[in-house]
Amino acid sequence: MAVKLQKAALDAGIVTIDGERAAHFYGEVLGLPLAGEVRLPDIGLIRRYAAGDSTLRVFVPDTRPQRESSRDGMASQTGIRYLTLTISNLDETVAAVTAAGYKVPVAIRDLRPGVRVAQVEDADGNAIELMEYTSASLQLRRPVPGV
Questions:
Q1: pLDDT over 50 (residue 143)
Q2: How far apart are alpha carbons 20 and 88 in whole angstroms?
Q3: In which order are the strands placed within the sheet that holds 12-15?
Q4: Residue 58: which of 12, 103, 93, 102 has the closest Cα?
Q5: How high is the pLDDT of residue 65?
């Protein structure tokens, strides 16, 4: 049995301990459009940011989480450790992240011919991979349904 997707995108959620810094990073520094907010009584606030057909949900719980994730890099533990945004302005975005005082643990580099990448972190240490295709011959590949 396979799931029957109603949306051709994967949405992701991030839990933060500082809603204002998260709003600054995702909404202002990265410039993702705010797609809405919902307050869940006695639970917390969810801010939704549009990322193409996907949605990034940033959850600000009313009660501080008991544990924080590792800040030792994306390969330091198992689990969902990073998100990837495929963008067309890598240099400008990394400069904006740096100017805003956020970490850039992996500076811009060539990943393979025609693909450049950098890794930045939000205020909670969540890793965001920024990928840019520089070769017109490279196509963004979508999986073939059923494969």
A1: no
A2: 27
A3: 12-15, 54-61, 44-51, 34-40
A4: 12
A5: 82
Q: Going by DSSP bridges, is the β-strand pair 106-112/115-121 parallel, antiparallel, or unpaired? A: antiparallel
Is the pTM here over 0.90, yes or no?
Answer: no
Tell me the pLDDT tens digit for each residue of 15-34: 999 999 999 999 999 999 99
Q: What angle do CA 43, 24, 10 make, to 5 degrees?
A: 65
Report the distance separating Cα 127 and Cα 95, nearest Å.
Answer: 16
From the CB of residue 145, how many other CB atoms can be counted at a distance below 10 Å? 8
Largest separation between any pair of C-alpha atoms in the chain:
51
- Looking at mean pLDDT, say which of 1-15, 19-33, 130-144 comes out highest: 19-33
Asked whether the beta carbons of 74 and 127 are under 8 A apart, the reply is yes
pLDDT of 72 above 80: no
Question: Considering only CA atoms, which of 145, 114, 146 is closest in space to residue 132?
Answer: 114
Q: Which residue has tokens 């869940």? A: 40
Q: What would the 3-class secondary structure string for 24-52 be?
A: HHHHHHCCCCEEEEEEECCCEEEEEEEEC
Q: Give residue for tokens 């008991």.
A: 66
